[in-house]
Specification:
Length: 237
């Protein structure tokens, strides 16, 4: 007669968390940096088909690392949430805080009830009328929410990248300065640290970059690529 297989709840949650963290760490990092006129999102992502950074609503954007199909499901759900809320009430009622709470409930339910957690980490950001009113929320695989200020790094070698951002970030950066800082931080990952040769150079065509620009009317999200991105990187340097 075989003995029943038992795993304690604590061990089960630990195993799920370890599994999710390993999956997230395999992905290339995403950096989010606040600057004087908004928030910039930067990822080392040569693909032009699979985006890690996307618009959710007028002043709200989404960035993610991990399994593409899983965070794409979350992005689509966020767009639907925003559309329904904006249509039913008012466009100003769609906020990053409300979206982050909805994502937290979804991720928390999946983590506790499903056999496999989502291997994702996401950022929901909203640009305000001034830098003081910007909002950046970071959500992890288990539904935990952190209110971030100034910058955030997730995926890949997030600890090394965040340390690089912390050394040089300050309020009032220009877009070019924030972009240059983000690219240098992405290049300061574990591989660069092991080589001991300073940050890896990353070409503009290897980057996915978008901004929430508070100086634009209503729809503040725009992508940066081609000559515009190259020019900003040159002026930041």
């Amino acid at each position: 007669m075989s003995m029943p297989f038992y795993v304690s709840p604590e061990q089960l949650m630990k195993d799920k968390a370890d599994y999710a963290r390993k999956g997230i760490a395999r992905g290339r990092a995403v950096v989010v940096v606040a600057f004087a006129d908004g928030i910039v999102f930067v990822s080392e992502n040569p693909s032009r088909a699979l985006h890690k950074i996307s618009e959710i609503y007028d002043r709200v954007a989404f960035a993610a690392v991990g399994k593409y199909n899983e965070f794409e499901n979350l992005r689509v759900a966020g767009v639907r949430y925003a559309d329904v809320r904006g249509y039913s009430y008012d466009r100003s009622d769609v906020t990053a805080r409300g979206l982050a709470n909805a994502y937290a409930q979804t991720l928390g339910a999946i983590f506790t009830t499903e056999s496999k957690p989502y291997e994702v980490e996401i950022v929901v950001a909203e640009v305000g009328t001034s830098p003081e009113t910007d909002q950046i929320y970071r959500l992890t695989y288990d539904g935990s929410v952190a209110d971030e200020h100034g910058y955030v790094a997730m995926g890949g070698s997030a600890d090394q990248i965040a340390a690089k951002l912390g050394e040089r970030w300050h309020a009032g950066l220009s877009l070019a300065e924030a972009l240059q800082l983000a690219v240098e931080a992405l290049g300061s990952d574990a591989a660069a640290e092991a080589a001991g040769s300073g940050p890896r150079p990353i070409a503009p065509d290897q980057l996915e970059v978008a901004v929430l620009d508070r100086t634009r009317d209503r729809r503040t999200f725009r992508r940066l690529s081609g000559p515009t991105l190259a020019g900003l990187m040159s002026s930041g340097a």
